[in-house]
């Protein structure tokens, strides 16, 4: 008796593609239509996990485009402290599709949020749309605005010069201004500003929201760079906390399901938009949880290495289809202090809400 699954490839069957394969050899990519070359300018943006992608691209010798590197006279360690080179431009974590959509519109002057500056308890000022990008905050409004002008110019250059744009979708929960809909990466009051329920609203994006906002962003970017190719990923990092009155596990499941469905829809309906399964590689049962640190949230270097080794194998030309770590280095799990150091190297604004009790508007210790 014949049926459609008899001729299925091994990777299409759970018993042969997952259960019978050693965990470190599970490969859910199967095939990927994009082959990056070292000469192509690559821009990365998104949630905390996106920083791992940029780090490995740089290590492997790819053309990670940085249009906002910081002043050349600044020493490298100070530039890193000031978050230059973490992403292609100094925009910090872009957790949601709405942030990305609004970033393009702000860069090209079609959207100007009413919230211009936020004040911290110590009197220093922060950019509401990049509240942690300047450690210590800005001293004056003029300094902040000058930095923003420079930043948005760097964003325009990144959009216009990119060949492959890699975006990691991170969250659906966000806080917005009731006045104009401007979306903030952190709730007012966490890293600056003051939470006011009369002026700020909580939004939990739907699949339709994400598809609409990402489609608009892709269309807008192609208006200034028609040849741009997009690679979408979904962050495997769970929510640090949820603003809804329900368990964080339930909100995490909702958020990741929405983002995964949206990414699939975009990749199947828009030309030159592709999905890479980093989320599946880290979260699937075959890893038995070993790709998460003790907090069950931070992704270990072994998990990042599994993702990036498959990325280089499937999404780059033959000369770079290799793991990003030397075999001896990749075979050793980092010690606890090393793992902590690696976690601290990743700028993750969302974790700031855990320093207090997570309630918007209440100052952190």
Description:
The chain has 365 residues and is of the alpha/beta class. The chain has 2 domains: 1-26, no CATH class; 31-354, no CATH class. It has helices spanning 14-19, 50-59, 76-81, 97-107, 141-161, 207-224, 248-269, 278-283, 301-315, 327-330, 336-344; strands at residues 42-46, 118-119, 125-126, 164-169, 173-177, 183-184, 200-204, 229-234, 273-275. It has a 4-stranded parallel sheet with strand order 1-4-8-9, with helices on both faces. Strands 6-5-7 form a 3-stranded antiparallel sheet. A two-stranded antiparallel ribbon has the order 2-3. A hairpin with a 5-residue loop joins strand 2 and strand 3. The N and C termini lie far apart (68 Å). Residues 321-344 and 357-365 have low confidence and may be disordered.
Outline of this structure?
With 365 residues, the chain is an alpha/beta fold.
Topology diagram in text:
Layout: H1 14-19, E1 42-46, H2 50-59, H3 76-81, H4 97-107, E2 118-119, E3 125-126, H5 141-161, E4 164-169, E5 173-177, E6 183-184, E7 200-204, H6 207-224, E8 229-234, H7 248-269, E9 273-275, H8 278-283, H9 301-315, H10 327-330, H11 336-344
Parallel strand pairs: 1-4, 4-8, 8-9
Antiparallel strand pairs: 2-3, 5-6, 5-7
Primary descriptors:
365 residues, 2 domains, four-stranded parallel β-sheet, three-stranded antiparallel β-sheet, 11 helices, 9 strands, globular, disordered C terminus
